[in-house]
Amino acid sequence: MPVVRRADASIANATVQQEIVRLAELREVQRAVLRFRSQESRFVQWQLEMARIPAPPFGENARAEWLAQRFRELGLKEVHTDEVGNVFGIRGGSAKEFVALSAHLDTVFPAGTPLNIRQQGTRLYGPGVSDNGAGVTALLAVAATLQELELALAMPVLLIGNVGEEGEGDLRGMRQIFSNPRWKTSIRYSLVLDGAGCDTIVAEALGSRRFEVIVRGPGGHSWSDFGAPNPILALARTIHGFSQTRVPTSPKTTFNIGVIRGGTSVNSIPESASMRVDIRSTSMTEMEHLEASLRRELDLAMAEEARASEQRGPSPRRSSGLSHEVVVIGSRAAGELDPNARILKVIRAVDAQLGNTAQIQRASTDANIPLSMGREAIAIGGGGTGGGAHTLQEWFDGTGRELGLQRILMTVLGLAGVAE
Ligand SMILES: [Zn+2]
């Protein structure tokens, strides 16, 4: 990590802090705060409506169309959808560079999952209601407020509902945005809204690599072809070896085998078996180390299973042997925000102004893409509280949401710059 020279850093921080204090005192900003409080029922309506539209990975179209409609109603400029389904709208400003405010539209839930979105008092229940119902609702609430405020922003704000954050979506929405020549260099700051809360700042991008390992063999009858190499046994040997790989606690590095499939019946030697492996770390080196270990253990296991099958007995089916394949099904780069980054100073100053306490966290979010490119990005929550993310029991409570919204708005204004 670069060394921060204290004196310089505190002078810079003091300047940012003064600017945030000035913003907080603006009449228009104080109007916005009252507005956030009085419009909670409108926000809840948006959140319920949105969560009722299924948005499985690679199936976000209907929800994206819904968001584009809301963007148009709010009068954002240049509302459009790109080739992968990301939705954009612009709140104008005088400069050429943008502050991007984004929230992912997709959920982890496959098509056909019963959504059963419901409200009980201040609580909302149902899959996706918080992740990312809270983020998308905050995006809309802040967009609506920016439209209403009579403030001259220096930098325009690019509002984005993006696809493909979760699981196999593999950040494809963000990847597309940061490879589009129009946005790639013009987005100066990225503020990602993900889930509920206002007590975290994700400034470290947790990297991950995901693999599908497939082993194939000749198959056969469990009795008459005994001796044929067995893909399930080869996979089991791989798991046994790989799971003994040592990983450091710092930088935290983890692995998981989350899915295993294979075989047809109890009395058949399987023709194939596969598993899905997840590797995570904030260090690219540690991820590479784990991947190398997986590939090495797989090669060893294949050789061992070939030898063991010979010892089991002669089989007419052995000659065709085993084959294997490792398919990369996900890859997210690791990265860290420069501790001197302006975006970090701004959010810290906003938190100080609001009396809000927040911890720096590492996680895998849409911010991974800009962070891995050395750009200024953080991910924060959309306010309120939530729980049970990625389960059917997911919930969100909007009590106190206005603090989170105020935090997002002030950060956007602090980054974009507001004329005196
Ligand atoms: Zn999320």
Describe the structure.
By secondary structure, this protein is of the alpha+beta class. It has twelve helices and 19 strands. The chain has helices at 6-25, 27-38, 40-51, 61-73, 133-148, 172-177, 181-184, 231-242, 284-312, 342-354, 368-372, 401-416, and strands at residues 77-81, 87-91, 98-104, 118-120, 123-125, 157-162, 187-193, 200-205, 207-216, 220-221, 253-262, 268-269, 272-281, 323-332, 335-336, 359-363, 376-380, 385-387, 395-397. The strands form five sheets. It has a six-stranded mixed sheet with strand order 1-2-6-3-7-17. The protein has a four-stranded antiparallel sheet with strand order 4-5-19-18, with no helix packed on it. A four-stranded antiparallel sheet has the order 11-13-9-14, with helices on one face. Helix 1 crosses helix 12 (401-416), helix 3 (40-51) crosses helix 5 and helix 5 (133-148) crosses helix 12. The longest helix has 29 residues, at 284-312. 46% of the residues are buried. Residues 1-7 have low confidence and may be disordered.
How much strand?
15-25%
Give me the count of strands.
Answer: 19
Mean pLDDT: 93
Shape: elongated
Helix content: 25-40%
Unreliable spans: 1-7
Radius of gyration: 25 Å
Instruction: Label the structural class.
Output: alpha+beta
Strand line-up across the major sheet = 1-2-6-3-7-17
Distance, first to last CA = 36 Å
Described by strand count, sense and barrel closure, the largest sheet is: 6 strands, mixed
Could you say which small molecules are bound to this protein? zinc ion
Number of helices: 12
